Amino acid sequence: MEIVVADNAGFCFGVERALEMVTRGEEPIDAPIYTLGPLIHNPQVVERLRRQGVRQVSSLDEVSGGTVVIPSHGVGPAVQRQARERGLRLLDATCPFVARAQDHARALAAEGYQVVILGDKGHPEVAGLVGAAGEQAVVIEHEDELAAVRVGARVGLVTQTTQATARLAAVAGALAERSRELRAFNTICAATTQRQESALRLAQQVEVMVVVGGKNSANTNRLRQLCEQTGVKTYHVETAAELDPRWFRNVGRVGVAAGASTPNWLIDEVVQALRGMGG
C-alpha cells in the first residue's frame, strides 16, 4: 500500500505564530496564563499546553489575574475592551489573516454597508467578525440562505478565513444580482487555499483519503468535505489510534491530508501507523 502525503499539510503561519507567542515568546509572560477558548483548534496540542500550565477558560469571569491570550481565531472588540477594563494583561495571538478580515468587516460597517459574513455559525472566528461589524451583520453558511435575507442596496461581504473559494464566489454572485453596490473581500487565507487545492489534487489520485486534524477545526472539516465531494472514500481522524485496518483492505494507494492546526508529529504518527498496516 502506497502512502502519499499532500504537498501542503499541517501548521499554517498563524497557528505556528500563536504557539510560539505562548511557549517561546520574546517577552516574559505574567503567570498564570489563560487562553479564551482553545488557542488553536486541535485538542492534542491544547492538552500539551495544559500540561505546560496554559489554562483554557470560556470567559473572562474565570480569570482574576495573569495573562489572557487571545486565540489564533480572534475575539470581538468587546471582549478585548472588557479584559483591559479589568486590568488584565492581553497577549494577542490573533492570526493576521483573521485580523485583516475583522478590519474589513469593521470598515464596511462604518461606511454604511450591510455586512454579510460567509462562515460557520457559532464558530469563534465568525463571532469575532460579528463583533467587529456589529450585531446587525448577517451570517450565512451557504448561498441558498440568502433567499431568506433582505438584501440592501449597498452590501459588503467578508468571509471566515477557512472557507472554500468556490463557496465565496457563489455567495458573491448571488449578492451581486440582488444589490446595487457590492464590495466583496476575499479574506480566505492563502494557507487554507493551498491545503484545499493539495487535498483535492491528491484525492483524485488515491483510493482512500485520511484527513488528520481536530474534529472542532473548521479548516480540517472543510478538507474532509472537499475530499468527499470527489467521490473518494474519506476518513477524518484526530490521532493514529482512530485508524481502522479494515478501511485499507485491498487498497493500493492512500492519501493523507491535514488541516492548518494539525502538528507534524500527529501527521507522522498517522503515516507510521499506516505503514504498520501494510503501507
| CATH topology name of the largest domain | Cobalt-precorrin-4 Transmethylase, domain 1
Radius of gyration over C-alpha positions, nearest whole angstrom = 20 Å
Structural class: alpha/beta
Shape: flat
CATH class of the largest domain: Alpha Beta
Strand order within the widest sheet?
1-12-10-11
Task: Count the E strands.
Answer: 12
Flag low-confidence runs: none
Q: Give a quick account of the main beta sheet: strands, pairing sense, barrel closure.
A: 4 strands, parallel
The CATH superfamily of the largest domain is identified as 4-hydroxy-3-methylbut-2-enyl diphosphate reductase, catalytic domain
Secondary-structure element sequence?
EHEHEEHEHEHEEHEHEHEEH
Q: What does the average pLDDT come to? A: 93
Strand percentage lies at 15-25%
Total domain modules: 3
CATH architecture of the largest domain: 3-Layer(aba) Sandwich
Fraction of helical residues: 25-40%
Distance between the termini: 4 Å
> What is the number of helical segments per DSSP (H or I, 4+ residues)?
9
